[in-house]
Specification:
Elements: E1 5-10, E2 14-20, H1 28-36, E3 44-51, H2 57-72, E4 76-80, H3 84-92, H4 96-106
Parallel strand pairs: 2-3, 3-4
Antiparallel strand pairs: 1-2
Helix pairs in contact: 1-2
Amino acid sequence: MNDLTVVTQQYTDRAFITVRGEMDLHSCPRLARAAAMIPLGGKRLYIDLSGVPFMDSSGLNLLIWLHRRLDAEGGLLSVTGLQSQPERLLHITETHTLLTTAAKSLA
């Protein structure tokens, strides 16, 4: 059984989600519930995936859903800390730039 740990931090203008564990079909609903509870209108949401060694299409779909949600609400999603397998997945699906550009522009 995969244990996924999700830690959220909220500030006035931004929110952070730190994820530890594998992002897959069984664990992604937990992350989706945590993200859904954060009011994101106009905020920047940073998702730190440095503790995620594996992500399948469920994780990718969740990140794309969050990107669309933030875009519709005037916010911005920044995915950071990608390990090799999740980073390869984003490159293969051509979503890497969509999900990580904002983080690089803030550095």
